[in-house]
Amino acid sequence: MESSKRQTILKIAAGAVVGLFLLDRLVLTPILDNWKSSSERTAALRAKVTRGRQLLKSEASLRSRWQEMRKAALPSDDSAAENGVYKAIGRWAQESHLNFTSLTPEWRSHKEGYETFECRATAAGSQAAIGRLIYELEVDPLPARLEQCDLAERDAKGQQLNLTMKFSFIRFNEGKGVLK
Description:
By secondary structure, the protein is an alpha+beta fold. The protein is built from 4 helices and 4 strands, in the order H-H-H-E-E-H-E-E. Helix content is 57%, strand content 25%. It has a 4-stranded antiparallel beta sheet with strand order 1-2-4-3. Strand 1 (100-110) and strand 2 (114-125) form a beta hairpin. It is elongated.
Protein backbone atom coordinates (compact mmCIF):
# COMPACT_ATOMS: atom_id res chain seq x y z
CA MET A 1 0.00 0.00 0.00
CA GLU A 2 2.83 2.33 0.70
CA SER A 3 4.05 1.96 -2.88
CA SER A 4 0.62 3.01 -4.12
CA LYS A 5 0.71 6.10 -1.88
CA ARG A 6 4.14 6.99 -3.19
CA GLN A 7 2.93 6.63 -6.78
CA THR A 8 -0.04 8.85 -6.04
CA ILE A 9 2.21 11.51 -4.50
CA LEU A 10 4.61 11.27 -7.47
CA LYS A 11 1.69 11.58 -9.91
CA ILE A 12 0.37 14.64 -8.04
CA ALA A 13 3.87 16.17 -7.95
CA ALA A 14 4.39 15.45 -11.68
CA GLY A 15 0.98 16.92 -12.45
CA ALA A 16 1.80 19.99 -10.37
CA VAL A 17 5.12 20.46 -12.20
CA VAL A 18 3.42 20.08 -15.59
CA GLY A 19 0.66 22.44 -14.44
CA LEU A 20 3.17 25.04 -13.27
CA PHE A 21 5.08 24.70 -16.55
CA LEU A 22 1.88 25.18 -18.56
CA LEU A 23 0.87 28.10 -16.31
CA ASP A 24 4.24 29.72 -16.97
CA ARG A 25 4.15 29.11 -20.75
CA LEU A 26 0.51 29.88 -21.39
CA VAL A 27 -0.24 32.62 -18.86
CA LEU A 28 2.70 34.23 -17.08
CA THR A 29 5.17 34.59 -19.96
CA PRO A 30 2.63 36.14 -22.39
CA ILE A 31 1.39 38.53 -19.69
CA LEU A 32 4.94 39.63 -18.82
CA ASP A 33 5.86 40.03 -22.51
CA ASN A 34 2.71 42.06 -23.10
CA TRP A 35 3.45 44.20 -20.07
CA LYS A 36 7.02 44.86 -21.26
CA SER A 37 5.94 45.82 -24.80
CA SER A 38 3.14 47.96 -23.38
CA SER A 39 5.66 49.76 -21.16
CA GLU A 40 7.94 50.36 -24.15
CA ARG A 41 5.04 51.74 -26.24
CA THR A 42 3.99 53.97 -23.35
CA ALA A 43 7.53 55.32 -22.98
CA ALA A 44 7.73 55.99 -26.75
CA LEU A 45 4.36 57.74 -26.72
CA ARG A 46 5.37 59.86 -23.74
CA ALA A 47 8.54 60.90 -25.58
CA LYS A 48 6.45 61.84 -28.63
CA VAL A 49 4.03 63.85 -26.48
CA THR A 50 6.94 65.67 -24.84
CA ARG A 51 8.43 66.44 -28.25
CA GLY A 52 5.03 67.62 -29.48
CA ARG A 53 4.65 69.95 -26.51
CA GLN A 54 8.12 71.37 -27.17
CA LEU A 55 7.19 71.96 -30.81
CA LEU A 56 3.97 73.68 -29.81
CA LYS A 57 5.87 75.98 -27.44
CA SER A 58 8.32 76.95 -30.18
CA GLU A 59 5.79 77.05 -33.02
CA ALA A 60 5.98 80.81 -33.54
CA SER A 61 9.76 80.90 -33.79
CA LEU A 62 9.83 77.82 -36.03
CA ARG A 63 7.24 79.29 -38.38
CA SER A 64 9.10 82.62 -38.59
CA ARG A 65 12.38 80.78 -39.28
CA TRP A 66 10.62 78.71 -41.96
CA GLN A 67 9.31 81.88 -43.62
CA GLU A 68 12.82 83.37 -43.55
CA MET A 69 14.15 80.25 -45.24
CA ARG A 70 11.42 80.37 -47.89
CA LYS A 71 12.18 84.04 -48.60
CA ALA A 72 15.94 83.39 -48.86
CA ALA A 73 15.49 80.43 -51.24
CA LEU A 74 16.19 80.70 -54.94
CA PRO A 75 13.70 82.64 -57.08
CA SER A 76 11.32 80.79 -59.40
CA ASP A 77 13.00 82.14 -62.56
CA ASP A 78 15.80 79.76 -63.64
CA SER A 79 18.16 82.42 -64.97
CA ALA A 80 17.72 84.65 -61.90
CA ALA A 81 18.28 81.66 -59.62
CA GLU A 82 21.42 80.57 -61.46
CA ASN A 83 22.70 84.16 -61.51
CA GLY A 84 22.26 84.37 -57.73
CA VAL A 85 24.13 81.10 -57.26
CA TYR A 86 27.03 82.17 -59.48
CA LYS A 87 27.27 85.50 -57.63
CA ALA A 88 27.39 83.62 -54.30
CA ILE A 89 30.10 81.29 -55.59
CA GLY A 90 32.04 84.33 -56.80
CA ARG A 91 31.78 85.90 -53.34
CA TRP A 92 33.03 82.70 -51.73
CA ALA A 93 35.96 82.44 -54.12
CA GLN A 94 36.90 86.09 -53.61
CA GLU A 95 36.72 85.92 -49.80
CA SER A 96 38.65 82.65 -49.60
CA HIS A 97 41.22 83.58 -52.29
CA LEU A 98 40.49 80.27 -53.97
CA ASN A 99 39.67 79.61 -57.61
CA PHE A 100 37.43 76.84 -58.77
CA THR A 101 39.00 74.62 -61.43
CA SER A 102 35.66 73.09 -62.36
CA LEU A 103 32.02 73.76 -61.62
CA THR A 104 29.19 71.51 -62.81
CA PRO A 105 25.65 72.71 -62.01
CA GLU A 106 22.46 70.66 -62.32
CA TRP A 107 18.78 71.22 -61.49
CA ARG A 108 16.98 68.39 -59.66
CA SER A 109 13.25 68.13 -59.01
CA HIS A 110 11.93 66.39 -55.91
CA LYS A 111 8.49 64.86 -55.53
CA GLU A 112 7.97 66.70 -52.23
CA GLY A 113 7.46 69.94 -54.18
CA TYR A 114 10.86 71.61 -54.29
CA GLU A 115 13.87 71.78 -56.58
CA THR A 116 17.56 71.89 -55.83
CA PHE A 117 20.33 73.47 -57.85
CA GLU A 118 23.25 71.13 -57.21
CA CYS A 119 26.82 72.04 -57.98
CA ARG A 120 29.88 69.84 -58.08
CA ALA A 121 33.05 71.84 -57.80
CA THR A 122 36.79 71.27 -57.71
CA ALA A 123 39.32 73.72 -56.32
CA ALA A 124 42.92 73.69 -55.16
CA GLY A 125 44.54 75.71 -52.40
CA SER A 126 45.81 75.82 -48.85
CA GLN A 127 43.96 74.41 -45.88
CA ALA A 128 43.18 77.93 -44.68
CA ALA A 129 41.72 78.92 -48.06
CA ILE A 130 39.57 75.80 -48.22
CA GLY A 131 38.40 76.34 -44.64
CA ARG A 132 37.48 79.92 -45.48
CA LEU A 133 35.56 78.76 -48.58
CA ILE A 134 33.50 76.33 -46.50
CA TYR A 135 32.89 79.05 -43.91
CA GLU A 136 31.70 81.48 -46.59
CA LEU A 137 29.38 78.81 -47.99
CA GLU A 138 27.85 78.25 -44.56
CA VAL A 139 27.29 81.92 -43.66
CA ASP A 140 26.16 83.19 -47.07
CA PRO A 141 22.69 84.80 -47.09
CA LEU A 142 21.68 82.47 -49.91
CA PRO A 143 21.00 79.17 -48.12
CA ALA A 144 23.41 76.54 -49.37
CA ARG A 145 23.89 73.01 -48.14
CA LEU A 146 27.29 71.37 -48.26
CA GLU A 147 26.51 67.75 -49.09
CA GLN A 148 29.92 66.28 -49.77
CA CYS A 149 33.47 67.46 -49.24
CA ASP A 150 36.59 65.47 -50.14
CA LEU A 151 40.16 66.63 -49.61
CA ALA A 152 43.33 65.20 -51.12
CA GLU A 153 46.88 66.45 -50.77
CA ARG A 154 48.68 67.77 -53.84
CA ASP A 155 52.20 67.95 -52.43
CA ALA A 156 54.28 65.81 -50.08
CA LYS A 157 54.03 68.32 -47.21
CA GLY A 158 50.26 68.65 -47.46
CA GLN A 159 50.45 72.41 -47.98
CA GLN A 160 48.39 72.32 -51.16
CA LEU A 161 45.10 70.45 -51.15
CA ASN A 162 42.59 69.43 -53.79
CA LEU A 163 38.98 70.02 -52.80
CA THR A 164 36.08 68.23 -54.42
CA MET A 165 32.72 69.27 -53.10
CA LYS A 166 29.02 69.01 -53.78
CA PHE A 167 26.66 71.70 -52.54
CA SER A 168 23.08 72.61 -53.30
CA PHE A 169 20.57 75.42 -53.11
CA ILE A 170 16.82 75.04 -52.69
CA ARG A 171 13.86 76.48 -54.57
CA PHE A 172 10.30 75.91 -53.40
CA ASN A 173 7.55 75.27 -55.91
CA GLU A 174 4.47 77.03 -54.62
CA GLY A 175 1.44 74.83 -54.03
CA LYS A 176 3.12 71.47 -54.59
CA GLY A 177 3.25 69.92 -51.15
CA VAL A 178 5.87 72.00 -49.34
CA LEU A 179 4.58 73.60 -46.14
CA LYS A 180 3.40 77.18 -46.52
